[in-house]
Recover the amino acids of this structure.
């Protein structure tokens, strides 16, 4: 079996060849992938059945959750969506070889800042078997090589999809097939994290624990988000209908998503008008509510929140509510306990909104909109690599652009620095 | 003495307050810093004398190099340049609160991508005492908090400049003075590397060993460059006059700079026309030359290069020369042995130039220009944080923009995702 080191070396070589891929060739490759996936639907579904059989045993033994089992399942619809996802990428703008900026820095000297791929990207993801096709597609479109590590539960599905993608790429003349690679075990991941000479970026898409483990064990830059602890602050100038709609949507529209709300902060001056209505509405939607000491003393049918609650990502129909004195208090709570993901103020007061949106140090700061909008497709990026709570490189929903960096191309005519330092020549202003 | 933990906490608080700083207030603060540095010139020069006295002992004992000693010295001219540097920053464009992109994602919903500061940045630099003023200035202009650790040799100079900057900032009403912080020991640096909850970016400006140590010992993203192993490839279609000028400038204009050239690759087809002229020119400029086996067999007055030479940053008037068969060979050599810093092709052939500039995977790829142009000021950025060989966040010379990231601001009117997933509403194309 090929070692991770050899795979990484090949991936790096392929990433250099990929620097010259035209949009035309890349789109041709993508269509070839979509076509071969289409032709091999049955093979894929059969492989998925094998995975599901194994997973069923784990489910029965209690070592796999029902939701993980559900995510693993690939049916005709999901497969069709997966293939359509590959085709849709063809229509997106090529993110590389774009001139981002250009300047004549001196007479006869042109400097161009040009977007280019990052190089080799390691992506570690969970059981969902459509991710392998999605990430491969984005890698091809952005001219990056990837080394993929999927969830072990999906191993048969991943293997077959991987081999179909490689076969499809082989059919495109001179295409650097080693752009797409698959590794299998935790030991492989461990080995990958040491290869900072070959791998330029790691994207972990998984649990908080996974992301922390990776950040602690590699010199390679890591792009990802740990927690998604999102807040809604109900300002004293909030419209009650917006409060009810946004709170329910932010919690219930998809409770296990990272952009669903954890904590609702409510301004003390509007408790009388808002709190009971909100409780009723949440309860109608089967949301369990935990509240701070004060609210607990005036409520029934709620639990009392503990210190841990303010820093917990629930991932289910559970929300905590806390009273705050002002927008400043709300900002301070969010900057202390939040994870810098997505936070919303509900208010009709523009000044409070701007204050909140300036001082809350999060990737997404919203006025009167559900936190669930934090998503690359909803933002109009056409594709999403993931959501980042990093404060370098890329933040928030990351589209194809997040898989690029730039280089500076300088076109001269024999120019030397000495002429400038001796004052013979001058840089343009 | 305040612990690094407390300093980092205060810096984080200050960084939140800094989110609201207007360009006007920041520029006022910068002018106040320049003014107070001006008024305290003598104090600074006296402190520098103390450092120089201590450094002289180290120099005599052989524990400090002459060049490090020279860099430590602050004279009237350097001090004037340093203060002018602070003033010049006032005229640069404010890099934060710029709307980078905006879109109405659906009717009544506006999404804005707005530049903002990174937060808290740790900067570790060597003995040059003007760096503390330069980095503080850039931090103020970009609304970031910084924790600075200077070279121990410059401790007295750094302390006095630091206290003057803090005093100047205190005179500006409500200015978050804790944006600028100084720490002192290696233990402090070690402690800082653990504080990933408070510090968002580390910029090491120092030796290769320092950068590697830092990358291996922190979860915090690191921006910097390890080696600066730069190449010039002399193509078979090179103009000889350009060859001689560019090679000499790239090596001799400032040999200890990271953007000076290490290895010259020469196309085999033009050895007869070029090689001896180049050797003569380099020798006239006191450059020691090491050459590959073949060239060694046909030359005199040169040394034979060893395997190590192709991956060594010389930092002095020393250059290695190697024969290559083609532009492809040159590209492969550079991508194998280079450090992704700055590499140049000398040619009159546009096709070879484009090939070189596409496939060489470096921050700067030049056609017919000295590698010494790789510099933020020469690129017209007005300021330079450093040069990055990272392939994420910022690459090449990094100006103020490299100290920023962005957030997404979404302005809605009570909008919920459920309306879109049920098909009641649609996103704009």
């Amino acid at each position: 079996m090929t070692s991770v080191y050899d795979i990484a070396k090949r991936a790096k070589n392929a990433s250099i060849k990929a620097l010259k891929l035209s949009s035309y060739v890349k789109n041709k490759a993508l269509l070839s992938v979509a076509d071969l996936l289409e032709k091999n639907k049955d093979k894929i579904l059969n492989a998925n059945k094998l995975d599901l059989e194994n997973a069923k045993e784990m489910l029965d033994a209690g070592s796999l959750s029902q939701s993980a089992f559900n995510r693993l399942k690939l049916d005709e619809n999901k497969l069709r969506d997966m293939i359509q996802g590959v085709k849709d990428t063809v229509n997106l703008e090529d993110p590389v070889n774009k001139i981002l900026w250009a300047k004549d820095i001196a007479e006869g000297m042109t400097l161009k800042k040009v977007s280019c791929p990052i190089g080799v990207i390691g992506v570690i993801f969970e059981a969902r078997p459509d991710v392998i096709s999605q990430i491969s597609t984005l890698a091809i479109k952005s001219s990056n090589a990837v080394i993929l590590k999927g969830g072990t539960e999906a191993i048969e599905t991943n293997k077959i999809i991987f081999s179909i993608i490689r076969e499809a790429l082989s059919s495109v003349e001179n295409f650097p097939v080693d752009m797409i690679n698959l590794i299998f075990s935790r030991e492989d991941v461990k080995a990958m994290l040491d290869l900072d000479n070959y791998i330029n970026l790691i994207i972990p898409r998984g649990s908080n624990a996974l992301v922390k483990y990776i950040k602690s064990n590699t010199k390679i830059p890591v792009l990802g988000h740990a927690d998604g602890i999102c807040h809604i602050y109900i300002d004293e100038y909030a419209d009650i209908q917006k409060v009810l709609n946004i709170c329910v949507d932010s919690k219930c529209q998809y409770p296990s998503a990272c952009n669903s709300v954890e904590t609702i902060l409510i301004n003390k001056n509007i408790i009388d008008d808002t709190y009971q209505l909100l409780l009723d509405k949440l309860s109608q939607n089967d949301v369990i509510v935990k509240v701070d000491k004060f609210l607990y003393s005036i409520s029934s049918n709620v639990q009392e929140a503990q210190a841990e609650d303010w820093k917990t990502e629930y991932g289910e129909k559970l929300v905590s509510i806390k009273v705050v004195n002002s927008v400043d208090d709300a900002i301070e709570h969010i900057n202390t306990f939040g994870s810098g993901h997505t936070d919303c103020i509900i208010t009709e007061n523009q000044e409070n909104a701007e204050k909140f949106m300036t001082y809350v140090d999060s990737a997404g700061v919203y006025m009167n909109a559900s936190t669930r909008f934090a998503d690359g497709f909803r933002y109009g990026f056409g594709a999403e690599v993931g959501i980042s709570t990093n404060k370098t490189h890329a933040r928030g929903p990351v589209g194809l652009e997040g898989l690029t960096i730039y280089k500076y191309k300088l076109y001269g005519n024999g120019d030397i620095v000495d002429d400038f330092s001796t004052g013979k020549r001058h840089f343009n202003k």
